[in-house]
Amino acid sequence: MNAITTVNQHFINGQFVDSHGQEAIDVYSPVTGELIGHTLLGDEVDAERAIVAAHEAFPAWSKTSLAERGQYLQKIADALEERMDELISVTVAEYGALRTFSTMFNEQARQFFLLAKDLLRPENFVERNGDATVTKVPVGVAGLLTPWNGSPWFIAGKAASALAAGATVVIKPSQNSTLQSRVLMEAFAAAELPPGVVNIVNGSGTAVGNTITRSPLVQKISFTGSTRIGKQIGRDAIETMKRVTLELGGKSPTVILDDADMGKAVQFALTAGLLNTGQACIAGTRILVPEHRLEEAKAALKAGVEALPIGDPNDPTTLIQPMVSASHYERVQGFIRKGIEEGAEVLVGGEGKPEGFEAGNYVKPTIFVGVTNDMTIAQEEIFGPVLSVITYRDEEEAVAIANDVEYGLHGYVYGNDVERAHAVADRIQAGRVMVNQFFDDPVNPFGGFKMSGYGREFGIYGMNAYLETKTVLAA
């Protein structure tokens, strides 16, 4: 992307419409710092127009047959496939995502619509229970508020579930992903859904986000983002009794059991901790290591991090990408400084940018040792390539440390005895735990315990979040 891209329209009621909001933002390359785009952010008027369009489209869309919805979901998937190369490239340019990662999650974004299509079976919507007919009916207008760390993936996952359920949607992407949103708008337009079924408004959380979450015409909110914002959305939603799904922050533990092959365990821990260069809610940023194997773990971790290639996200050999923005780079630097101030030891990495990468938003992959679980870097979500090594004496203490955090989104366990590793995973307070392998699963439920939110996404669980249950009793 050498040319400057301008985004000054939203997708409302089946059309591209000029932004009423006039707040202008510039988009800079995370890799070079160069200007790559301009965006006009929407305001309350744009958001209200989108909400009204979705509200007016809902009665007809909610009555479409399962076959009709399936055809539209297929059309969206086809439209994304036609734009896949552009979507991958713009994600790399705007977000700084590795091309390999961008390819994976954008292709999975397309797959979400096909998976949702497969759920459109009568038994998922109607059942007989004695003298009762229990039906699941669309909730209404759904507001979908999505983050920047994989924007098309989050939008697709939520929108596919909502549309399959028969809900209409108003989408507010992160303002850090407006160039990606433009491509998605074009895909939804090409799919030729009825006007108002899908609406996308770029804008801030204050102007557009608050308008959506507080509108009496919106019956459902699905939000992925920080716990602080999630709490505010929950407070706003209760005023109009909105149904809410909140997928919030995480501070996931990676528990390396004492029988583990340390080389393999460290590779697993680095994969979990540095996923998306740490810009992931599921990142395993607390590595729990048996006390008597600490030196072995330190040597393996140091060698592993020093071998990670930092560079251009378009280079297939690159494994460490830049942070999404200069402000986010500064946020991560603040946590590194805080770790040093609180007495943790830098094993590898530290403050500043890697040598040769001063132009972009690159952070040195950093591992702290000598960390206690009460330190800031062990308790707060950093959202960057900063990992904390915490030692434990026995399995009971490992589980206690793993659970001694306000979050409960994800966890990881690695050990030679698979049955024992599963038993430890069962004791971790998290919505999802991976044992001995790292993979994604877009079918089974995903969501958090504790301050990581509530509600579940993916598969039938995600679609059910946009359905209300109705019982009709007849003698």
Please write out the topology.
Elements: E1 5-7, E2 9-12, E3 15-18, E4 23-28, E5 35-41, H1 44-62, H2 66-82, H3 84-95, H4 99-118, E6 126-129, E7 132-138, E8 141-145, H5 151-165, E9 168-172, H6 178-190, E10 198-200, H7 205-214, E11 220-224, H8 227-238, E12 243-247, E13 253-256, H9 262-273, E14 286-290, H10 294-306, H11 326-341, E15 345-348, E16 366-369, H12 376-379, E17 386-392, H13 395-403, E18 407-408, E19 410-414, H14 418-427, E20 432-435, E21 449-450, E22 453-454, H15 459-464, E23 467-473
Parallel strand pairs: 1-5, 8-9, 8-11, 9-10, 11-12, 13-14, 13-19, 14-17, 16-17, 19-20
Antiparallel strand pairs: 2-3, 4-5, 6-7, 7-23, 12-22, 15-16, 18-21
Helix pairs in contact: 1-7, 2-4, 2-6, 3-4, 3-6, 4-5, 9-10
EC number: 1.2.1.3
Protein name: aldehyde dehydrogenase (NAD(+))
Active site: 247
Structure explained in plain terms:
This is aldehyde dehydrogenase (NAD(+)). InterPro entries: Ald_DH/histidinol_DH, Ald_DH_C, Ald_DH_CS_CYS, Ald_DH_CS_GLU, Ald_DH_N, Aldehyde_DH_dom. Residues 16-472 form the Aldehyde dehydrogenase domain. Its EC number is 1.2.1.3. Keywords: Oxidoreductase. The chain has helices spanning 44-62, 66-82, 84-95, 99-118, 151-165, 178-190, 205-214, 227-238, 262-273, 294-306, 326-341, 376-379, 395-403, 418-427, 459-464; strands at 5-7, 9-12, 15-18, 23-28, 35-41, 126-129, 132-138, 141-145, 168-172, 198-200, 220-224, 243-247, 253-256, 286-290, 345-348, 366-369, 386-392, 407-408, 410-414, 432-435, 449-450, 453-454, 467-473. The longest helix has 20 residues, at 99-118. The protein is an alpha/beta fold and 475 residues long. A hairpin with a 6-residue loop joins strand 4 and strand 5. The strands form 6 sheets. The chain has a 7-stranded mixed beta sheet, sandwiched between helices. A 6-stranded mixed beta sheet has the order 10-9-8-11-12-22, sandwiched between helices. The protein has a 3-stranded mixed beta sheet with strand order 1-5-4, covered by helices on one side. The protein has 2 domains: 5-248 and 452-473, 3-Layer(aba) Sandwich (Aldehyde Dehydrogenase, Chain A, domain 1), CATH 3.40.605; 253-441, 3-Layer(aba) Sandwich (Aldehyde Dehydrogenase, Chain A, domain 2), CATH 3.40.309.10. The protein is globular, with a radius of gyration of 23 Å. The protein is 40% helix and 22% strand.
